[in-house]
Design a protein that fits this description.
The chain is an alpha+beta fold. It is about 35% helix and about 25% strand. The strands form three sheets. Strands 3-4-2-8 form a four-stranded antiparallel sheet, with helices on both faces. β6 and β7 form a beta hairpin. The protein is globular and about 65 Å long.
Length: about 220
Amino acid sequence: IDPIDSNRNLAAAISNENIGKFILICRALKEKPSLEFFKIKKSKISKKFWGNLLIVKFEFKTRSSDIIWGQIKRATSTLSTQLELGGFTVLRSKSHTDEQKEAYLIFFLESTKINEIYQKNGPEFFREDSAHSFISKNLNNAELVWVGNNRKIISLEKRKHTNAESFMKEFLEKNLEIGIPKGLEKDFKAGFKVFLGNKALSKSIKEEVAQLISVDGTLLHFN
């Protein structure tokens, strides 16, 4: 707890990412002492990955910065899980807010489009009840069903969404209570935007978003 402001959680800024950066830079400094380590190196942006960024933007009613940061971080974590469940690979994610009215949930995806067909692994065939239930549920709806060499019943399924943008829009429209903290539900019901890339972003927001597709400046000290 902050000794000056009891409402502020000092530990919130101590993430695994920041701890990792600190450890790596300390090792490098110990190995090769130099004043260069005390200079901030600008991250190198890989612009070819702008199209791999999925962004959710919304406006919120004024509240304390600690509360909104906590809410958007939880929302980002939950939506990352939902994207993974939908078949998308989330490489990195982050959240950002101007602490006044706008907030952004940002996801760096391996690909914004995925195959329509996917393999679904069921139970092992010797689990009688589970195997029977899986076969009954999937036999008529799946593209294919077979017994795999791994002893599991396998089905070939068709996805409803192959595009990350449409997946996220529908998820937020129909499953808001699952993916968004309760404190943000009214804000999202008032409206939100889902888009790919860096369109409709101000310069300052672009800089924040670009961190997900950049080589960390801390690591550049190893050159």
